[in-house]
Specification:
It is a single chain. The protein is of the alpha/beta class. 46% of the residues lie in helices and 17% in strands. Helix 2 packs across helix 10. The model is unreliable at 1-24 (pLDDT under 50).
């Protein structure tokens, strides 16, 4: 079933791409003249949804048309990404592209690689982190890793989201970078970063890996102790938390990312118009205030850079999943 789904997706995208030539310049002259749909492959209220809704509201000011966020959930993100990639490349259907899609490609669950989209921009990256409950015996990442090495497999548990999720990958990659078999720590699936942090705060799991932007409220409330961020730089809101490289000397980084994309074959003039609208929304006071208040990192990559980054992630994430024994 998986192979058939991927084949049908490819045909649909190819057919719609061929239609793009007919859409072309005439459609661009008065674009947009009706509402735009922005598909989010995840549920309402999550990080991707809230970022998309804030951006959409700012885009409306630039485009003069409603930008309606539609949550197309299911299949660990496949349904929403497929709906966006399979839409007509006329600029009226765009959506978020998330890091989780590269993992699904690696697992053979979809053929939606970077080549199957028109990239508008990357707008956000969020490094994973390692945190423990406030009552944990571990004060540093080095102490935690040493305990994992010295104890039998299954002594400790870790969580962050579902099995095979980006947070699971972040943990497994950290173990590999530290020279530890990832199977020594039992991964406990959860409903997402927020619930996993609550589990760590209550002592139900030993380690969790959501970003510090998600953990910060519980850190500031004294319920969670962050040990290290998996970003290349420290998290500005919690500047005392070291990077993994600073904590243990291992060059391991892992991050979730969010892009705005459109179906493959979007005419270049329509793409450029959307890029300008997204950039203006990205720079707007409302969006920058929202991102700052929530602790979300703002990262900008234009179309070509975003596509190259997406393609590199398709390859790099697969290599890490293979090294961690996740595929």
């Amino acid at each position: 079933m998986t192979k058939l789904r991927g084949t049908l997706t490819g045909v649909a995208v190819g057919t719609l791409a061929a239609l793009a030539a007919a859409v072309g310049p005439a459609a661009a002259q008065d674009f947009p003249n009706r509402p735009i749909t922005l598909i989010v492959p995840w549920g309402a209220g999550g990080g991707t949804d809230t970022v998309a809704r804030s951006l959409a509201a700012a885009m409306e000011q630039e485009l003069g048309q409603p930008v309606n966020v539609v949550n197309r959930t299911g299949g660990s993100g496949i349904i929403g990404h497929t709906a966006m990639a399979s839409a007509a490349p006329d600029g009226y259907t765009i959506g978020t592209i998330n890091v989780d899609l590269s993992q699904l490609v690696c697992q053979g669950l979809t053929e939606l690689t970077a080549d199957e989209f028109t990239h508008i921009a990357l707008i956000n990256t969020e490094p994973a982190a390692v945190s423990v409950g406030a009552d944990s015996e571990f004060e540093t990442l080095e102490q935690a890793l040493e305990a994992i090495r010295e104890n039998p497999p299954g002594t400790f548990t870790a969580s962050g989201s579902g099995t095979g999720s980006i947070y699971h990958l972040a943990w497994a990659g950290l173990m590999v970078a530290a020279g530890i078999d990832p199977s020594k720590v039992t991964w406990v699936p959860s409903q997402g970063g927020g619930p996993s942090l609550q589990d760590a705060a209550s002592g139900a799991v030993d380690f969790v890996t959501p970003p510090l932007s998600t953990a910060a409220p519980l850190v500031e409330a004294g319920k969670i102790r962050p040990l290290a961020t998996m970003g290349a730089d420290r998290f500005e809101r919690l500047p005392d938390v070291p990077t993994v490289a600073e904590a243990i000397g291992a060059e391991w980084t892992s991050q979730t990312w969010r892009m705005i994309g459109a179906p493959k074959g979007l005419p270049e003039d329509l793409r450029d118009g959307l890029v300008a609208a997204v950039r203006a929304a990205y720079d707007s006071e409302s969006f920058t205030t929202f991102m700052g208040d929530r602790g979300f990192a703002m990262t900008w990559m234009g179309p070509e850079e975003a596509k190259a980054f997406h393609a590199s992630e398709d390859k790099a994430i697969c290599e890490v999943m293979e090294a961690a024994g996740m595929i």
